[in-house]
UniProtKB/TrEMBL annotation:
Biological source species: Perca fluviatilis (European perch)
Annotated ranges, domain Enoyl reductase (ER): 70-392
PROSITE patterns: QOR_ZETA_CRYSTAL
SMART domains assigned to the protein according to its UniProt record, in alphabetical order: PKS_ER
Protein name (Swiss-Prot/TrEMBL): 15-oxoprostaglandin 13-reductase
E.C. designation(s): 1.3.1.48
Keywords for the protein's UniProt record, in alphabetical order: Oxidoreductase
Length: 461
């Protein structure tokens, strides 16, 4: 018995395979057009839910439709088809996504003015691999848990290049905190901070997503750490992670406290607020002090995106103290990213790093669950209510397990169990649910990716 794979296009049946595979694994005797079709579809055997169930045909995602610093005005929720991963891609079912102050800068079009709406938004996510391309299957498998840093995370499913994904041991939001917030603090302090044991470090917004990590990394470097925050609860948290001097600026005058308690000035400032806080940081620098600017959240919601600043005397102040201001933007330091992430993962695994997550459990409207909660989560963060990294639990629709899975169900194609038929050579994409019974892969359902043709197995004497 030999096999003949036919590609049916309309009423015409074109021979595709006349024989088996060569020793190298190539398909022998394949019609040129059909060969391209098979290669394009070869990953579909891998494209399935890890429970053997179908992936929904549609999903929700957030899309920027209008450039605006008002996130609610700029972004809308849309229902679209679940994307198909390319040859080297993973399809990730997002379980958690992270909220960043820069989400508003992105929705306002400040990072790349050449990009026009509509475009996807969201920078980081973590979840399970539910589909993948053939090349990606050499390093990943369906069911893997991965995290990623890239555009388009605010969606129930996201296609991620396999080489850019980060394997994680479990789908925990704590790992998500490291992707942007942790990496920013780790790399900025290492590359720009030049921290030395015994130096004094000031971290503004210290109980926030990235501030919490700056406090811990500076303390690990043997520095005396000061952290600003907006409540006694946050001050208590800062003490618990090693901050030497939490300052609740709602009950203490920050400028007076710094002048009184640190008359020699601050050696390193990790600054993310901007405006008057930035001015205070400049004025508080010690001789040879370094001010690292990782953002200025106080101005992001304005039309210009830049907080007011009286900088006329800035050159004089820097010259008088031989001080410096150093900007940090994570995409410019991606060569350091893998090392930073690996180091932080090890610290967390050993219990040497706290990754505080705020899923809005104490928010007025409750926990952030579902993509629609991203809007609330952004407002929550900009109101300064968060303690730690703000994270949304996406919780996409449950994958359907319905339907007849018996061998007699519609859409099955019988294959002689004594005949070994590789899954990538068998496609039944004419019907739904499109099941293929195969001795090597029982109860597996390839993802329907093309509905313009049908491939079927024909046995010949």
């Amino acid at each position: 018995m030999s096999s003949l794979l036919l590609l049916r296009n309309g009423r015409r049946a074109v021979p595709v395979i006349r024989g088996g595979r060569t020793a190298t694994g190539a398909l022998s005797g394949v019609h040129p057009v059909a060969r391209r079709f098979i290669i394009d579809m070869s990953y579909s055997a891998h494209f399935m839910d890890f429970n053997g169930s179908s992936i929904p045909s549609s999903m929700k995602k957030l899309v920027v439709n209008k450039l605006s610093p008002n996130f609610r005005e700029a972004v809308s929720t849309q229902t679209v088809a679940v994307p198909t991963p390319g040859d080297g891609d993973l399809l990730v079912r997002n379980r958690f996504v992270g909220i960043n102050a820069s989400d508003i800068n992105y929705s306002a079009g400040r990072y790349d003015p050449s990009v026009k709406p509509p475009f996807d938004t969201g920078f980081e996510g973590i979840g399970e691999v539910v589909g993948l391309g053939l090349s990606a299957s050499s390093s990943h498998t369906v069911g893997d848990t991965v995290a990623y840093f890239g555009s388009g995370a605010f969606a129930e499913y996201t296609v991620v290049p396999a080489k850019e994904s980060v394997p994680v041991p479990a789908v925990k939001p704590e790992f998500l905190t490291l992707l942007v917030s942790g990496a920013t603090a780790y790399i900025a302090l290492k590359r720009l901070g030049d921290l030395a044991k015994g130096e004094t470090v000031l971290v503004t917004a210290a109980a926030g997503g990235t501030g919490q990590f700056a406090v811990q990394f500076a303390k690990q470097a043997g520095c005396h750490v000061i952290g600003t925050c907006s409540s006694n609860e946050k001050a208590g948290f800062l003490k618990s992670i090693g901050c030497d001097r939490p300052i609740n600026y709602t009950t203490e005058d920050l400028a007076k406290t710094l002048r009184k308690e640190y008359p020699q000035g601050i050696d390193v400032v990790y600054e993310s607020v901007g405006g008057s806080v930035f001015e205070l940081a400049v004025n508080s620098l010690a001789n040879k002090g370094r001010l690292i600017v990782i953002g200025f959240i106080s101005g992001y919601q304005t039309a210009s995106g830049i907080p007011a600043f009286r900088g006329g005397t800035l050159p004089v102040k820097l010259l008088q103290k031989s001080a410096s201001i150093r900007g940090f933007f994570l995409p410019h330091f991606l060569s350091d990213y893998r090392e930073a992430l690996g180091s932080m993962m090890q610290m967390y695994a050993k219990g040497k790093l706290v990754c505080e997550v705020d899923c809005g459990d104490l928010a007025q409207e409750g926990r952030f669950v579902g993509l629609e909660s991203v809007f609330r989560a952004v407002d929550y963060m900009y109101a300064g209510k968060n303690l730690g990294k703000v994270v949304v639990e996406v919780a996409p629709p449950a994958v359907s397990n319905s339907g007849d899975r018996s061998p007699n169900a519609a859409g099955w194609r019988k294959v002689n169990r004594k005949q070994k038929v590789p899954m990538e050579e068998v496609y039944d994409i004419c019907q739904d649910p499109g099941w293929v019974e195969d001795s090597a892969h029982p109860l597996r359902r390839p993802r329907v990716t093309h509905r313009t043709a049908v491939a079927e197995v024909v046995t010949t004497p």
